[in-house]
Amino acid sequence: MIAFITGATAGIGKAAAELFAKNRYNLIITGRRKERLQEFSIHLKAAYKIDVLCLNFDVRNFQEVEKAVNSIPAEWKSINILLNNAGLAAGMDSIQEGVIDDWDRMIDTNVKGLLYITRTITPIMIKNGYGHIINMGSIAGKEVYANGNVYCATKFAVDALNKSMRIDLLPHNIKVTAINPGMVETEFSMVRFKGDEARAQNAYKGLTPLQAEDIAETIYWAATRPPHVNINDIVIMAAAQANATTALRK
Ligand code: NDP
Ligand code: 8X3
Hints:
Blueprint (H helix, E strand, L loop, with lengths): L1 E4 L5 H12 L3 E6 L2 H15 L3 E5 L5 H9 L10 E4 L15 H29 L2 E6 L12 H21 L4 E8 L2 E2 L2 H5 L4 H6 L7 E2 H12 L9 E4 L4 E3 L2 E2 L3
Parallel strand pairs: 1-2, 1-4, 2-3, 4-5, 5-6, 6-9, 7-8
Antiparallel strand pairs: 10-11
Helix pairs in contact: 1-8, 3-4, 4-5
């Protein structure tokens, strides 16, 4: 079994890679931080005796995506699972004060990047006659919150694409699932608040957030249902978070 995981250098993607590896999947792992990718690959191979292929590229650049996917050797093309996970929030400003570069980064990564990966991997899956695409959505793709505007819009787009892909890929025996978490403690908030540690920690203050491993378990569960079962959509929250805007903090 082979799983292709984007954004495996940190957070949810990394935890998912670890769990798939533990369960004897061979892995294609991707990310921009080459050193992290290679160190992680050495760990996975040694700990779980699996094969790992590292692809180092930026999902925002279609030429890089295409080159990386075209470089996949024939023996790695029987991809069972694609985890479309690479993504980010950049900034948290009102619409009238939004930073254009932040908007571009989010739209280019979360929407166009996910599309570029899907566009290049689905022909391989169609040729194989099987596959399962798992898209990382968010509670932000189900509800909007103050100053979430463009990040929410990108995750609403993922929600639409998830539903749409399921229709287009139905004749090709390709399952499509979305996992939509509430707050998960990863590098997400450090990235969103551009390295401002105090602001990042504030996001999780006074409550126990989800951990990357909680999401990895959910992804793995969805990926391992019997062939006649598809999990369309999961919303998963910390027990202390009721919805996008209501959390119980002590
Ligand atoms: P992290 O910041 O911990 O990890 C993000 C991963 O995405 C990294 O591996 C990063 O790798 C990769 N990535 C980001 N931009 C690019 C790019 N341009 N090209 C290639 N890879 C990229 O965040 P999370 O693990 O929390 O986030 C993973 C996904 O989960 C995202 O889609 C996020 O929106 C979603 N999510 C997160 C939630 C949370 O609260 N944490 C809740 C709901 C959804 P590198 O920097 O090495 O390229
Ligand atoms: C991340 C969760 O609530 O910060 O997608 O938007 S939230």
